[in-house]
Amino acid sequence: MSRLDSRAIFDAAAGRFGDAVYDFQPGVPKDGPRDSCFKVKPDKVRDLMTFLRDDSALRFDFLQSLTGVDWPKLNVLQSVYHLYSYSHRHEICVKADSPRDKPVVPSVVSVWKTADWLEREQFDLLGIVYDGHPDLRRILMPDDWVGYPLRKDYKEAKEYRGMPTSRPSPLDLLLVYDKAHKTDVMQ
Length: 187
Hints:
single chain, alpha/beta, 9 strands, Beta Polymerase, domain 2, five-stranded mixed beta sheet, 24% helix, 187 residues, 4 helices
């Protein structure tokens, strides 16, 4: 088995899915680590990921990470998948854009079990709904939390169930402590 470069991986995906995959961006190693990536239309995510895992020339058997990005100026929430093939030693990044007002992407838990908690995290913090997820519920925030803390327009409530949601700076607390415990040792 041989390692494919990122353009060949994109070409294989485009050959199978046509214009549902698009916007190939080669990595830029000279400017620091930036992964080669391409985009997929949200409704084709599960089909593409199954193909990338099962095709013998590709064999992406490891979902390294699944993250999300909020692009409010574009009105988009983006799911970002980093994939790796242990047998071929190649990797690729795949992105799926969905509208901020109705961010729905098919779940890939049936493709990689590791997507389970990763999708729940993006649901919890960005509000991306992974359709078909077996247990899509909050994973970090309380069940009754309002809003999605990683959206760039998120406004945190001052309190939750009577508890403050923020704390004073430790430096401010030290000043208060110093004033309260000041002695006349310096006199």
